[in-house]
TrEMBL record:
EC number: 3.2.1.8
Active-site residues, record numbering mapped to chain: 268 (nucleophile)
Domain GH10: 36-346
The organism of origin for this protein: Cellulomonas fengjieae
Keyword tRNA processing: no
PROSITE patterns from the UniProt entry: CBM2, CBM2_A, GH10_1, GH10_2
Name of the protein: Beta-xylanase
Ranges annotated as spanning the membrane: none
Annotated signal sequence range: 1-35
Length: 486
């Protein structure tokens, strides 16, 4: 994560409807080839994020701002939302630079990704000097204040960053690990959910791109959290890579996390080389960038790729790895490198080479894989409650829905139905099998979350599009029985 540091830092689709594409849950989106002239166009058409890490003071540089404006649909603060920037002294919060990033995202129609709430690095000394309940209280207070400040603006948070060592153990140089033990991660996630129920909550780390001891340790943590109902929605893979070293198990690794029912994303991509660069190294780098984007495109729950910066001029790499650099897509003079066209070509299998006919969106087809649903037993009798939370921007939104069984009998297999009142459409869903016909939406449980004990609940979410009005649905039915509002 530069501050300069090797590790920093998923999903919302803002333009798919505007591009008059055919949209379906889990389906590819197509647009006329000539319309996709930027990486942002191509990624949006594919239903993916393409993001960059922003230092807001660089927006005064016209070349920097021009690329930032035109090539990306997501932005993350490089350093402006970290602890040392947002709470330099205890309980005295400073949001100036972070708010600049948030304002830029809003003014340019980009998704805003939050980075990061709890990280052992770039931590003020006053935090390091605390211990025990004082440290836990300070951490919870920090998470609560920062997440609340950006509520409704940030779509996702890196809640905890870089918590593991490469051997899969918890890193012993973390103040939080040393003084609070393993439980601090769960505490941070629960505090983040309480502060902003609609934001997706992610754990983020580096050297986790392959199947290895470190990624497996995080996999086991996510599996445990999902089993116990600890809120976690996504996993970030930093992907600070070296040319020629994209892991052979990277796609398999991302997919195994997705199979747990969480989203995945590449959060901090750069691919460095020994400098100076030459044609051969740049060609290898281009092939590697293409490979990473292809991997994300091949995993349906991969939300997208964020490049850790724009230009080699400002890359953190040379300061951290002497003799290495040239890691980004634009060189120090803002000229596109071969990696740019390679990334564009990674979307070739998604964006057609000849203009298709694009009829208006009516009842989108759904191409979800078949799901074997258990038989529904003990449907609730006037015993369900639905909480519907929305984070919206321009013509897009993310909805997070909690379905609670308030009856005295468990539910084994559930179907939730509702109708959109304002012509909204679902563009992507998670933790469910979601279909739509006109305004009517049907949500069925995923294979892993079909059981709701008496008094228990399940969560799912989706991204959607609207035309300027985004009234929330008010009438929900669970297995045919009307539910109350949460």
């Amino acid at each position: 994560m530069p501050v300069t540091h090797p590790r920093r830092s998923t999903t919302l689709r803002t333009a798919a409807v505007a591009l008059a594409a055919t949209i379906a849950v889990g389906a590819a989106v197509t647009i006329p080839a000539q319309a996709a002239s930027t990486l942002k166009d191509l990624a949006t058409a594919a239903g993916k994020d393409i993001g960059f890490a922003l230092a807001p003071d660089r927006l005064s540089e016209s070349a920097y701002k021009s690329i930032a404006d035109s090539e990306f649909n997501l932005v993350v603060a490089e350093n402006a939302m970290k602890w040392d920037a947002t709470e330099p002294s205890q309980n005295s919060f400073s949001y100036g630079a972070g708010d600049q990033v948030a304002s830029y995202a809003a003014s340019t129609g980009k998704e805003l990704y939050g980075h990061t709430l709890v990280w052992h690095s770039q931590l003020p000394n006053w935090v390091k000097n605390l211990s025990g309940t004082a440290l836990q209280s300070a951490m919870t207070n920090h998470v609560t204040n920062v997440a609340t400040h950006y509520k409704g603006k940030v779509s996702s948070w890196d809640v905890v960053n870089e918590a593991f060592d490469d051997d899969g153990t918890r890193r012993d140089d973390s103040t939080f690990q040393q003084k609070l033990g393993d439980g601090y991660i769960e505490t941070a996630f629960r505090a983040a959910r309480a502060a902003d129920p609609t934001a997706k909550l992610c754990i983020n780390d580096y050297n986790t791109d392959a199947i290895n001891a470190k990624s497996t340790a995080i996999y086991n943590l996510v599996r445990d959290f999902k089993a116990r109902g600890v809120p976690i929605d996504c996993v970030g893979f930093q992907s600070h890579l070296i040319i020629g070293q994209v892991p052979s198990t990277m796609q398999q690794n991302l997919q195994r996390f997705a199979d747990l029912g969480v989203d995945v994303r590449i959060t901090e991509l750069d691919i460095r080389m020994q400098t100076p660069a030459d044609a051969n190294k740049l060609a290898t780098q281009a092939a590697d960038y293409k490979k990473v984007f292809q991997i994300c495109n091949a995993v349906s729950r991969c939300q997208g790729v964020t490049i850790w910066g724009i230009t080699d001029k400002y890359s953190w790499v040379p300061d951290t790895f002497p003799g290495q650099g040239a890691a980004l897509v634009w060189d120090s003079n803002y000229a596109k490198k071969p990696a740019y066209d390679a990334i564009a070509s990674a979307f070739a299998g998604i964006t057609p080479t000849t203009p298709p006919v694009t009829p208006p969106v009516t009842d989108p087809p759904v191409t979800e894989p078949p799901v074997t649903e258990p038989p529904v037993t003990q449907p609730p009798t006037a015993g369900c409650q639905v909480t519907y939370g929305v984070n919206q921007w321009n013509t897009g939104f993310t909805a997070n829905v909690t379905v609670k069984n308030t009856s005295t009998a468990p539910i084994n297999g559930w179907t939730l139905t509702f109708s959109f009142p304002s012509g909204q459409t679902v563009t992507q869903a998670w933790s469910s099998v979601t279909t739509q016909s006109g305004s009517a939406v049907t949500v069925r449980n995923a294979p892993w979350n079909g059981s709701i004990p008496a008094g228990g609940s399940q969560q799912f979410g989706f991204n959607g599009a609207h035309s300027g009005t985004n009234a929330a649905p008010t009438a929900f039915a669970l297995n045919g029985t009307a539910c109350s509002a949460g």
